Amino acid sequence: MIKKLKNGDVFLLHWLNDSIKCRILDVIMPMVTYLGSVTFSALFCFVTLLSENKDIKHLGILTSVSMLTSTFITHFIKRFINRIRPYINFPQLNTRKIGVDDYSFPSGHTTAAFSIGVSLALCYTSLSAIALSLSMLVGISRVYLGVHYPSDVAAGVIVGSFSSYFVFLIL
Fold first, then answer.
1. Lowest mean pLDDT among 65-79, 80-94, 144-158
2. Are 125 and 92 in contact (CB under 8 A)?
3. What percent of the chain has pLDDT over 70?
4. DSSP annotation of 18
5. Would the CA dihedral through 106, 108, 113, 115 be positive or negative?
6. Which residue range forms the structural domain that includes residue 116?
7. By the 8 A CB rule, do 167 and 59 touch?
8. Separation CA 167–CA 136 (nearest Å)
9. Per the structure, how many domains does the chain have?
10. What is the pLDDT of residue 20?
11. How far is C-alpha 94 from the geometric centre of its chain's CA atoms?
12. Transmembrane residues, as ranges (predicted)?
């Protein structure tokens, strides 16, 4: 069973990284992946926290606490699992020059994107489809760029989503 999951993970990695590769995605995916970066996440939290609008400020508080929670969980798991990034195990992968830390599991960019996306979806239900679609695109971009396995992204979806939902329930 575990071998089948690993084989499926590697198959999806190669499919997203190679089979759908094209010039347009080579330009778009590095920009999309930025939506899960520390810089974008911090900027999003900062701008929403400074808002005069109480609903937007509440979103900022929710997102900031969710980001702190999910980042702590993600870094703990990364240090515990120590999964090597796919481009190291598969040097033939198509990669782009983007900054990454040492370990792959779970995807920090995906975790951040879902912390923001789920928070937005919970606070502004009319933006749910857009927020969650952009969050998922961040995860797909990480595999397309060869820096994460699909299971890394799935774990990031879970950590970011549950962190946001849990924080939403308590705030």
1. 80-94
2. no
3. 97
4. I
5. positive
6. 2-170
7. no
8. 20
9. 1
10. 87
11. 19
12. 31-50, 56-77, 113-141, 153-170
